[in-house]
Amino acid sequence: MATYAIGDVQGCLSPLMQLLAKINYHPQHDRLWFTGDLINRGNESLATLEFIKSLPENTVCVLGNHDLTLLAAYYDIIQPKPGDTYAEILKAPNAKELIEWLSKKPLLFHDETQGYILCHAGVYPLWDLNRAKACAREVEDCLQNNLIALLAHMYGNEPSYWYEDLTGWDRIRFIINAFTRMRFCDTNGGLDFSLKESSMSPLSSLLPWFSLPQRIPIQEKILFGHWAALQGQCPVNNIYALDSGCVWGNALTAFCLESKEKISVECTL
């Protein structure tokens, strides 16, 4: 029995099936975790979402920014942009069922037994684990009880700094941005969304979230996606980048929690 965490699939079902065959995935014995961004950009978004939804109940998916965008589009909060590939989901006969299933997914998953955290973009560096879990629950509760309002207020880059006394939609927006959009922070921990490149920032004032000197250490191992430019590499011990850029024609990667082995398949789109 093994647990495999898989990086951003983004509607690339064919590479996902190749990867599951390569790891010899058996649904009765193995378990799959997904780092979010299940859909969009790839050309098989509907089939991908339907397949992952059909997996055993012990499958774990956390929400990514593209997943939240799909929810917002379904409820007419936004309109799809050029290059988005989730229109087929919105038109599908089972769209409501798929959207309701997706909206119940968490921002953070913590397996205390194995000592792993799964999230899309990472854990905000000035949060300890208890704070991160509490913040994730705030948004998850809002997703269940005030979904439309959350989707209407979640867009925007401000506030960029975390304060314990943040309230209302500013607080919710910061938490969502931290879990689903974060890459770089300034030296004071402010979220910056101007760069998407690798961890070697050309601006000395910006650092990858995992390299911030004052980052609060978390004992658990962190699995995250979102940052394809890292090509699945992270220089910090016990933090594992899993988005290896499948949708950009690179690779789709699975990480075995038990052996810490990475297994990839090449993607040609």
The number of domains: 1
- State the CATH superfamily name: Metallo-dependent phosphatases
Give, in spatial order, the strands making up the sheet with the most strands.
Answer: 3-2-1-11-12
What percent of the residues sit in helical stretches (DSSP H or I)? 25-40%
Task: Characterize the overall form.
Answer: globular
SS strand fraction: 15-25%
Profile the largest sheet: 5 strands, mixed
Low-confidence stretches: none
What's the CATH C level? Alpha Beta
Number of discrete helical segments: 8
Average residue pLDDT: 95
Write the CATH architecture name: 4-Layer Sandwich
Structural class by sheet pairing and helices: alpha/beta
Radius of gyration: 17 Å
Number of strands: 12
First and last CA, distance: 32 Å
Could you name the key traits of this structure?
single chain, 269 residues, Purple Acid Phosphatase, chain A, domain 2, 8 helices, 30% helix, globular
Describe this structure in words.
The chain has 269 residues and is α/β, with parallel strands linked by helices. The chain has one domain: 4-Layer Sandwich (Purple Acid Phosphatase, chain A, domain 2). It is 30% helix and 16% strand. The protein has helices at 13-22, 45-53, 65-74, 87-91, 95-103, 129-145, 147-153, 168-180, and strands at residues 3-6, 31-34, 60-61, 108-111, 116-119, 184-186, 191-192, 206-208, 221-224, 239-241, 251-256, 262-266. It has a five-stranded mixed sheet with strand order 3-2-1-11-12, with helices on one face. Strands 4-5-9-10 form a four-stranded mixed sheet, covered by helices on one side. α3 crosses α5 (95-103) and α6 (129-145) packs across α8. The longest helix has 17 residues, at 129-145. It is globular.
